[in-house]
Amino acid sequence: MGNVFGHKKDKPSAAPAAAAPASSVQVTEQDRALLQVKVQRDRLHRLKASLAGVIAREVDVARQLLRENKKQQALLALKRKRYQETLLERTEGQWANLSDLASSIEFARQQSAVFDAMKQGNALLEQLNAQTKLEDVEALMDDTREAVAYQQQVSQLLGAELTQNDEDDIANTIAQWEADEQVAHMPVVPTRPVQAAAEPEEVQPTEAVEEKESPPAEEVEPVAAVATKTRPKAAAKEVIVA
């Protein structure tokens, strides 16, 4: 009895795939550095936009705290604002330095400095990112035990970051705000001069008024004098009777 299954013919094997041609473009360390510069720039722009909203809220909170006679908390809000502005300036300066180093034609010679600048830039970005939380600003307005402990911690940390000039500028800002509040609550003074009230006319006695108004009475001459005036003049010479 023959083999019913028969013999299965083998399929010809496929030809091996051709190897992909090697890329002629090589990614250098400088290319990687420039890419890192771009990544840091994009992140810096995002953090800068977020931080602008936080800083604006801190100014509003500081003014409100000052109106509520919470001067120390208002000072702390302004200290946070100054620290964030300083940190942002440092981060922007560090990024500009990194961009210059990475684009330099002497990259190979100063490669170590480039990577050190990258590390510093990333560290500053992380610090900047920690300052973009609005809930930390709102915590400055609370009077709970946890909020007070947080405020004390922030005050100690910022004390080592701010210079004496920063402290003086903040104190001057608070003083100016206090002066503005006093002016805003002062009574409104009229801008036009107030006219003096008219003096009452002096009332003269009735008799004096009558004397002024009535005309003087004509003087009446005696009758004899009137007759004398009307009599014809006598002859200049008397007639002598013989």
Describe this structure in words.
By secondary structure, this protein is mainly alpha-helical. The chain has a domain at 29-184. It is 62% helix and 0% strand. The protein has eight helices and no strands. The protein has helices at 29-67, 71-103, 111-130, 134-138, 145-159, 164-184, 206-213, 223-230. The longest helix is centred in the first third of the chain and has 39 residues, at 29-67.
Order of helices and strands: HHHHHHHH
Uncertain regions spanning at least 5 consecutive residues: 1-7, 234-242
Structural class label: mainly alpha
* Number of DSSP helical runs: 8
Average pLDDT rating:
74
- Please estimate the helix content: 55-70%
